[in-house]
Design goal:
globular; 525 residues; 5-stranded parallel beta sheet
């Protein structure tokens, strides 16, 4: 089929600006026969919704006969923000690491899809229910529901064919427990990476667990099972890990526990709020003590909570033989992808698989990058992936893409990073540049019209300079009971930006007046 790529380009620009297409441009519900392309998306979190919306933004002349299906194994959209109604106990994994008292650690205006601000009255750092509803509203606003199959779990996926042509054979279990086998030309994996907990095992921990004093219970659990801080009343707790969850859990537990240690191997990206005792990483356990790497110890510890992140796994591709699991490896299997549990490779720009078994636009991943604003990044990736699914000629030959990947990895090494360890982390504050780079790459090849503005709006970059004072200022406003007053009249993206500037300036003036000095805040974008 010959595509009108000028029309495609204009449409994708419309997607970039998030202008809604007329309803008549949407294909009718259930239209599947004689599909020119068939595309399966796995996951209805922020990444999957962004990809589905971007595909539907294509002109009807291009995708009218495309068969587009999104499979979501849970009961609703929202991904990690959708609560688990009956959280499983170890060793069974819960559906999500979400815990009831979770609030965002990032101001919500920066967490949005472009052109889609949160509703008026949303707190700057709201509880998780607001984010859950935001995703549900997004699916409704953009007419995504007819394409989403809830309670459908993808069990396996295998490529049947050659490096030039073929299809994905996908096995799905539906809401009745029946197994369905379907074929698709393209597979988009957007199911997140907070499923398989990375559980660190320390020397001597079994001895420590077995030698609890009479009437005392000792426990080591990953934060994926953490739910309620009140269960740690009068306990001594060690929280391991300096990420957002580790710092937030330490802050919550501190309100109930007798004492909280915060154990980190390097300067943390996030700090707990409150008098926790900072410790280096855990070295080992004795029968009665937790021993840290500096030789200091903690006694009478009841619980160790591991905020140690997640292993990067893709179970349905592993089941289909398309992903090899090699912990700690940097060896590439050219016929299939490899995960070393931190990095999935080889991928072009963290999106397209460069395994030689199938075409370069046959398998895409949306949402792998971390340490950035997800919805914005998911949108940029989706525009890139959609453009290349529609027009594979926008991608250079596989050999050239592999050389580009090798050059990018070597550049990371020169800057002091091991690409096989940092994985898909956007280090050195590179998230915004990555997103702009995707769109500029399309423009340079004619996949999108040339434009003098960046994909990432200037206000998003500007506000992160003030992220620390903004958060401290909002907490002070809430404590003073003035937060709702400051939110009055805030509706548009520009309104939210001006609000954040006002809060930050108000707080910075107050801190200067009271001669308060804070260390530089970690900026993640």
């Amino acid at each position: 089929m010959m595509f009108d790529f000028q029309w495609l380009a204009c449409s994708l620009l419309g997607s970039l600006l998030f202008r809604l297409l007329p309803l008549e441009c949407l294909p009718p519900h259930g239209f599947e026969q004689d599909a020119v392309k068939s595309i399966a998306i796995v996951g209805a979190g922020s990444a999957g919704l962004a990809m589905l919306k971007t595909l539907l933004d294509l002109p009807v002349e291009i995708r009218a006969h495309w068969d587009i299906v999104l499979y979501e194994q849970r009961r609703d959209v929202g991904g990690v923000w959708l609560p688990d109604p009956s959280p499983a106990l170890p060793p069974e994994l819960p559906e999500t690491p979400l815990y009831p008292r979770l609030h965002t650690t990032t101001p919500v205006p920066t967490m949005t899809y472009p052109g889609t601000p949160f509703p008026p009255g949303t707190p700057l750092y709201p509880p998780h229910e607001y984010i859950e509803q935001y995703h549900r509203d997004y699916a409704t606003r953009h007419g995504l529901w007819p394409y989403i199959k809830l309670n459908h779990t993808v069990l396996s996926s295998s490529w049947i064919g050659t490096s030039k042509t073929g299809h994905w054979e996908i096995v799905v279990e539906d809401h009745n427990g029946d197994r369905i086998r379907r074929s698709f030309d393209h597979l988009v994996v957007a199911n997140g990476h907070n499923h398989e907990p990375h559980i660190v095992v320390f020397a001597g921990q079994e001895t420590w667990l077995e030698n609890a004093k009479r009437g005392q219970q000792r426990e080591i659990l990953h934060s994926i099972w953490y739910r309620d801080p009140s269960q740690y009343v009068n306990q001594t707790v060690v929280v391991v890990g300096g990420g957002a969850s580790g710092a937030d859990i330490a802050t919550q537990v501190l309100q109930y526990a007798h004492k909280v240690y915060f154990s980190v191997r390097s300067p943390p990206r996030h700090e707990p709020a409150g008098p926790v005792e900072r410790k280096p990483g855990i070295s080992h356990f004795t029968s009665d003590e937790v021993v840290f790497t500096d030789g200091s110890t903690a006694q009478d510890v009841n619980t160790i909570i591991l905020g140690t992140g997640y292993d990067l796994r893709v179970p349905f591709l592993e089941e289909g033989g398309e992903v090899a699991v090699k912990p700690g490896s940097n060896e590439t299997d050219k016929h299939r992808l490899t995960t070393n549990l931190r990095y999935l490779f080889p991928l072009h720009r963290h999106i397209f698989s460069l395994a030689t078994s199938y075409p370069t636009n046959a398998l895409a991943f949306i949402g792998l990058p971390i340490l950035l604003s997800n919805c914005l990044s998911d949108t940029a990736q989706s525009i890139y992936a959609t453009s290349i699914i529609a027009n594979s000629s926008l991608l250079a030959p596989r050999a050239e893409l592999l050389r580009e990947l090798a050059d990018n990895e070597e550049d990371l090494r020169r800057r002091g990073h091991n690409p096989y360890y940092i994985g898909h982390r956007m280090v050195d504050r590179s998230g915004f540049d990555y997103q702009d780079g995707l769109i500029e790459a399309l423009r340079s090849k004619g996949g999108l019209p040339e434009k003098n503005t960046s994909f990432v709006e200037a206000w998003r970059r500007e506000i992160f300079v003030h992220v620390g004072s903004l958060k401290r200022g909002w907490k002070r406003l809430e404590a003073l009971g003035q937060a709702q007053e400051w939110l009055e009249g805030v509706e548009s993206e520009e309104d939210w930006f001006q609000l954040m500037k006002r809060v930050s300036a108000w707080q910075e003036d107050w801190e200067k007046k009271h001669q308060l000095v804070f260390s530089e805040d970690t900026l993640i974008y």
